[in-house]
Amino acid sequence: MVARPPVTVVIEPMRADDIPAVHDIERASFSAPWPTYAFRQELESNRLARYVVAREGDHVVGYGGLWLMVDEAHITTFAVAPASRRQGVGERMLLELLRISESVGAAVATLEVRVSNLPARRLYEKYGFRPVGVRPRYYTDNNEDALIMTTGELSSREMRGRIARLSAELFGSGVGATDTAADRRGGADQRSPGVPRGGEAVG
Ligand SMILES: CC(C)(COP(=O)(O)OP(=O)(O)OC[C@H]1O[C@@H](n2cnc3c(N)ncnc32)[C@H](O)[C@@H]1OP(=O)(O)O)[C@@H](O)C(=O)NCCC(=O)NCCS
């Protein structure tokens, strides 16, 4: 059982003025971090992209994002500040990304993860991602393989049941209980998709 995160942690859409804090976490988390302009480009120009941050008061403690590719949501990046790990922040963000994915009609969610990244693999497995393949030498910094992980159908009984159970465990209340900007707005962001930038996804 994880320690409960502070109640002030909320998941909200990433804004341009979040980018410096996001980049600090990115540099602390990845050996080949995205530059700040990549995040800016994603927010400003990529209509396929959805990015969220986990905010504790005024501080960004995590971020993640995805591309909506036809009927598939591809998680592009995902990280929690080192000091805020193992408090359920990653789970909260993943729940929101899966909720966004299903709300815009994605059938499944998918991602790449370094084969050595066991914390991330455990998190994704907990949320129903399963290994479906390997991209050999995908990560150019050390030629490490990427494991491709994909969920079952997001609308399936199995995935919905899993998400409902994990939400209830995490939030200690009813099915699907989350504290997100979208909830407070009363629904998901439904912008129409456009063209993604290229590049490697999460690692
Ligand atoms: C992976 C990462 C996002 C997890 O975020 P987090 O907020 O610490 O995760 P949570 O506290 O929500 O943990 C949820 C689950 O993830 C798994 N997990 C997280 N950290 C783990 C660890 N160090 N070892 C094993 N499992 C771990 C567990 O299944 C955990 O559930 P449990 O508490 O019931 O065991 C975080 O470690 C991180 O930012 N790592 C560096 C960046 C990165 O690897 N991003 C993913 C790229 S694919």
Describe the protein in words.
It is built from 6 helices and 7 strands, in the order βααβββαβαββαα. The longest helix is centred in the middle third of the chain and has 15 residues, at 89-103. The chain has a single domain, classed as Gcn5-related N-acetyltransferase (GNAT) (Aminopeptidase). It has a 7-stranded mixed sheet with strand order 1-2-3-4-5-7-6. The protein has helices spanning 19-29, 36-45, 89-103, 118-126, 157-171, 181-185, and strands at 9-13, 49-56, 59-69, 72-80, 108-114, 130-139, 144-150. The chain is of the alpha+beta class and 203 residues long. It binds coenzyme A.
Q: What percent strand?
A: 25-35%
Reading the helices and strands in chain order gives EHHEEEHEHEEHH
Whole-angstrom Rg: 16 Å
What is the topology, as strand order, of the major beta sheet?
Answer: 1-2-3-4-5-7-6
CATH superfamily: Gcn5-related N-acetyltransferase (GNAT)
The unique ligands bound to this protein are: coenzyme A
How far the N terminus sits from the C terminus, by CA atoms, comes to: 25 Å
Question: Which CATH top level class fits?
Answer: Alpha Beta
Oligomer: single chain
The helix content, as a percent range, equals 25-40%
> Spans of 5+ residues with little confidence (pLDDT < 50)?
174-179, 181-199
CATH-level-2 architecture: 3-Layer(aba) Sandwich
CATH topology: Aminopeptidase
Number of domains: 1
Secondary structure tally: strands:
7
Strand count, sense and barrel status of the largest sheet are:
7 strands, mixed
Round the mean pLDDT to the nearest integer and report it: 86
Shape: globular
